[in-house]
Amino acid sequence: MTAITPSETRAVAAPGRLRGYHSGAREIDEASVEVRGELPGWLRGGLLLNGPALWDLPEGGYKHWFDGLAMMHRVSIDANGVRYRSRFQQTADYRASVAARKPALPGFATPDPLGFFGRIGKERITDNTAVAMARIGGQWVAQTETPFVTAFDPVTLETQGHVNFTDKEKLHLMSAHGINDADGNYWNVGVELGPKCTYKVFRVRPGSLQREVVGRWTVPKSGYLHALALTPTHVLVWETALRAQPLKFIFTGNSYIDNFTWTPEAGSRIVAVSRADGSIRSWDVPPMVAFHAVQAYDDGTDIVLELCNTEPSIFGMLTLERLRGGKPLDVVASIARYRLQAGKGSAEPEVFVPDVDLPMVHGAYWTNKRARYAWLAGADPQRRNPSLDRTVKVDLDAKQVCGTYQRPNAAQLEPLFVDWPGSTEEEDGVLLVPTLADDDTGSVVAVVDPASMQARATLHLPQVVPFGFHAAWDAA
Fold first, then answer.
1. Cα–Cα distances in Å, from 149 out to 91, 145, 202, 227, 329?
2. With CB atoms counted within 10 Å of each terminal CB, which end of the chain scores lower, N or C?
3. Would the pLDDT of 11 be above 60?
4. Binding residues
5. Where Fe cation is bound, by residue (predicted)?
């Protein structure tokens, strides 16, 4: 199959940082990366980036940021220097869409190009796993909100096909954020759609491809599902008030997000599934929608969950027309803390620190114990910029921002926390922050000290990396 070249896309030249929302990224085998400043000697491994990169095909394109065909990137750091590599994910959706020279499958905000009779008897689900990454045993995988999981080689970025689980569980929706616990287990949650919807929290043990369902529960209509959270004792799932309409999934050919309806009268719930015995408790909460958890932890008999709560209008704010037009972000998220108390059936959020999302804590704390500090991507509170434009450090005890790193005139994405091997102090490590300033030749990864929030070094990549969502660290 012949790939679409940058010159064949329908993309137009974009100014400044808005280049991050346009097609044109190339597959690069191996290119040196200029380092300005000094990298810590212990930082050895690979920064993995995943995200949409190709929105504009010769005969049609995508209209939403989330729908671009996925590209993987690796920034390798070792004693010999820093190098960059990029590869498109060779998924079924990518191959079919490139061959058709236009979108071939439905996506997040892309309706199915086939009519009703063309869809009969066919499973028309995208495997464009452009959101997040995790490991199932020793295998790296990329994920999105559909049940497909795409394996890839973290060094060569070669796509290795779908992970074929050995169980018979049926899932139609799945969290994009599978979580690895300290024992190497992979945890996730999915939904089986039907006259009623069944949530299934499952675990995959190292060396296995069987999804062991630890807990399941049924609801009339499931909520929009993007992530989950773990404590040492429980798996936490938040049922948003953006509710799935199962018949639309089956019959309409709608885009993914158009199969959900904002239903505030249905409220929301937080469900805790015991990791030990699968027992389930739940708490009603005011109607909400959230992509990501800052953290979750046990506090005596209470469970505490901190989310980045946003608004249902966020999805419409992220169309390419708005983003490429430089429209400011009118909706971001705020941190909301829920204290889930034994013997109670409801909880109210304590909301603090607005205009943030894409949270990160030290790896020794995530899923294991309470963290005091979190690092997040932040937006201009005056709503003057078209993208997230700063990295903020939040003191979760004081419930306030306690540090900021910001490159002038730049977009700044998720800050990936890479901790010193074996460290347990919360600020021991570096933040790797992908950025793109108006006058940059290519994307720049800032290496930021989590304590001082000052850049120790910058890595200057050989091309603009289209704006994605999440990163991961492949330790040497």
1. 10, 10, 14, 15, 31
2. N
3. no
4. 177, 226, 292, 470
5. 177, 226, 292, 470
β-bridge partners, 416: 432
Nearest to 362 by CA among 354, 353, 371: 371
Of the CA atoms within 13 Å of residue 395, those in its CB half-sphere come to 7
What average pLDDT does this structure show over 430-443? 97
Distance of CA 62 to the CA centre of its chain: 19
Opening angle at CA 72, ends 70 and 74, nearest 5: 165
Query: pLDDT per residue over 376-414, tens digit each?
Result: 999 999 888 889 999 999 999 999 999 999 999 999 999
Residues 317, 323, 326, 329, CA torsion sign: positive
Question: For residues 290 and 241, what is the distance between their CA atoms, to the nearest angstrom?
Answer: 10
In terms of pTM, does the model score above 0.70? Answer: yes
Secondary structure of 19-36 as H, E, C letters: HHHCCCCCCEEEEECEEE
Q: Which two tokens stand for residue 56?
A: 């504009």
The per-residue pLDDT for 453 is 98
